[in-house]
Amino acid sequence: MNLSKAIEEYLSYLSIEKAISKITYETYSTDLKMFLEISTDISVEKLDISHIINYVDRLHELGYKRSSIIRKNMCIKGLYKYLKKENIIDLNLADIEIPKGEKLLPVVLNKSEVETLFSSLEIDSPTYYLDLTLLKIMYYSGLRVSELISLKKQDIYFKGNYLKVFGKRSKERIVPFSDNAKKVLTDYLSLYRDLIKSKSDLLFLFNDGKKVTRQYVYSMIKNTEKKSKINKKISPHTLRHSFATELLENGAKLKDVQTLLGHSKIETTQIYTHISKNKEIEEYKKTMKRD
């Protein structure tokens, strides 16, 4: 059974057996349609924890309020419960985390953890250069996953060391990249991308010429996290958070970080100042203990 059919049956179940109101039905229908668009019309037997977490990551990228994310997430969790009750999937629902109502600071990695993550990739893997470049460009440029996988080869400007990125609502912005990022992009093109026979102008492709998906990026990062043994839950957005936090810690102005990240509101960027302040407090506490 495909996901679209499962959603149709779930909505019918809610309408007939649960007798939910018309407004509630429409709300669930909208949320489930978004989940379908993000997850694609896969077989429900392939549904796992990564799809619901990937969905939540996407909601964060789209700028939804925490209360909306909680509601939408609960709707998808209801779908999972229904599929489990119908013996269509066998999943431990305790593993599906619903975000708490309080505002939590995002997880960030320090430089050492970032390097550990990079070095945890398997060099012998056929996708090594692809995976390494995906990770490094997310970290060095702070791109959203949707922006990353939509990059085209012509969006790289090596002379000026910058990327042309199309963010939310196709809004264009210029994102500079470091010499480290320049090297990884150069290596990626010569050792991997240029060897792929494809008419596509997309930067990130699999060996067979197919487009890299959001699901792949998420899965790759989770697998690399496990190998790295870093005691933090890492998602694609974690690298973006780490990029922004490091910029502020190195003296970047909040307005400049907002521009680089493509945030429409300065309030969205201000959360990284709280992270930096918390880290300062932790370092102070460590120093006091040593004294």
The overall pLDDT average reads 83
Question: What is the multimeric organization of the chains shown?
Answer: single chain
CATH top level label of the largest domain: Mainly Alpha
Please, how many domains? 2
What is the gist of this entry?
With 291 residues, the protein is mainly alpha-helical. It has helices spanning 3-16, 22-39, 49-61, 66-85, 111-119, 128-141, 145-149, 179-191, 214-228, 236-249, 254-261, 266-269, 271-290; strands spanning 156-157, 162-166, 172-176.
Describe this structure in words.
The protein has helices spanning 3-16, 22-39, 49-61, 66-85, 111-119, 128-141, 145-149, 179-191, 214-228, 236-249, 254-261, 266-269, 271-290; strands at 156-157, 162-166, 172-176. The chain is mainly α and 291 residues long. Strands 1-2-3 form a three-stranded antiparallel sheet. A hairpin with a 5-residue loop joins β2 and β3 (172-176). It is globular. 30% of the residues are buried.
